[in-house]
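Let's practice the habit of predicting before peeking. Look at the sequence and jot down your guess about where helices and strands might fall. Then scroll down.
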Amino acid sequence: MNGAIRNISDTALWVAMYRAMESERPDALFKDPYARRLAGDRGEAILKSMPRGRVLAWPMIIRTAVMDEIICRCVSDGTRSVINLAAGLDTRAFRLALPPALRWYDVDLPDMIRYRRDQLASVRSACSHEHVEADLSSEGELKRVLARISGEMPPVLVVTEGLLIYLTEPQVRSLAQQLHARDELRWWLIDLASPQLLQRVSKSWQPHLSAANAPMQFGPVNGAAFFAPLGWRQAEYRSVWEESLRLNRSIPLARIWNLLLKLRSKKGRESARNMSSIVLLQRS
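Done guessing? Here is the structure:
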């Protein structure tokens, strides 16, 4: 089977394979019993086609595990609705221990939503769940979706896992402004890449992604501070590197690499720490 990534939606199959890999470990950080079914043969073929695809699984696995933690805590602290934009094949509404009264909306392109509905038809969600079809590249479509669902059960947490890196800076700025325009949206959970990380992936994954018109392109120089003028302040920061050490999912010889990092300058250490991060933003 051809494992070339054809479009942005195919990246969801690829990431689902990473969740399947982790879920099948005896010491798994999380269990996604639907991941392999959702990824299918094509997801496995895509993973095999990506340079060092399995070796570089750890950042995706860390991202999933840490976002699980933050989402569950936000819900425990009073979040009543979750809007999962560009949901891809995320199954948190089905696999996490969420309160039945929580409202969860998985939003994505019509073809992706149809695929999700078909694959998850026999699965019962843990909370009140709804699939929402929307082309989020259209500002008018995003505005329509937010107007319909954001005010139902405030306060609301917005999740954009794996989305921002594929957008341009103006698109991210527009998204931040549209989300801030809705008072019900109190929290926004994101993952961020640094310019240094984008430079690194340009040598391996970028050619495959660019050929499918899905290049990784957003990596703000100032990290989460990019969002401050747009009405969002950093409430919580997690370095993917540091979390990989905490959760014991990292590169080979990670502890040695971490010791070597301590010999670098303060600027060098911060650069490594901030290469990839997970950030919970709060409306200012």
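How did you do? The chain has one domain: 10-283.
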